[in-house]
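Q: I have two molecules that I believe assemble together. Could you output structure tokens for the complex as a whole instead of separate predictions?
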Amino acid sequence: MFEARLSSTALLKKIVDALKEILHQSTLDCSDSGIQLQAMDNSHVSLVSMSLRSDCFEKYRCDRNLSLGLDLRSLTKVLKCASGDDAVTIKSADKADKLQLSFESASMDRTADYELRLLNLDQEHLAIPETDYACVVHMPATEFARICRDLSTFSESVVIACTKDGIKFSANGEMGSVNIKLSETSKGDVSVQVEEPVTLSFAGRYLNTFTRATPLSEKVKISMAPEVPLLVEYPIEDYGYIRYYLAPKVDE
Amino acid sequence: KSKQGSITSFFTKK
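A: Yes, here they are, computed for all two components at once.
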């Protein structure tokens, strides 16, 4: 038996919004310690890893490890029927083929129960190696979203260059070019830790997709090392994270 | 000219 109750559906909506653009279907791996998800996009260019500890939930019970295969678009449709301040309980019996979602209004005078068909997804998990990132940048999540949006107007490719002076985002296309540089600020909303400078090129389309997680957190953490995937991490309150890994473009 | 790398060339199957 798996049962988890969140006091606010808004958080679940934000999490699913952060995933559904890049993953249409995915498996939630539920265990005693919490809920995990790991999946690649269809093109195998990026990988999403989510972790939500059990103490995020008002009530959490998971008697045995369970994998719940979900169609995230269908889950979005169900979540649209709920109000953000509803409490939500998700429940599944062992070996069940359905997930139950119950929404309870804040005034507790309305309950709505939904059943969502579970999918049998054959999902492979990748081993993510421990990486000592040469550059780690923290910045406001809204600033990162704005930069990704603005650069994608110019080019499909985005170059991210990180030095001790700051982080620079560049795009160069037919209509012209753009360079946006952020330096470390004294008020601490942008911080840049650099062991060695790194410059890598990425597909802007994916960076834009990652910024769907912006409502989850004020800050985003960007980590880079030479010739390894970029890591873009959004914390989920104090209870977990969504990490997006993006393979760099390589010179032909 | 650059081409898009695959995430599976960095992370291997468990």
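A: One point stands out. Chain B is about 0% helix and 35% strand.
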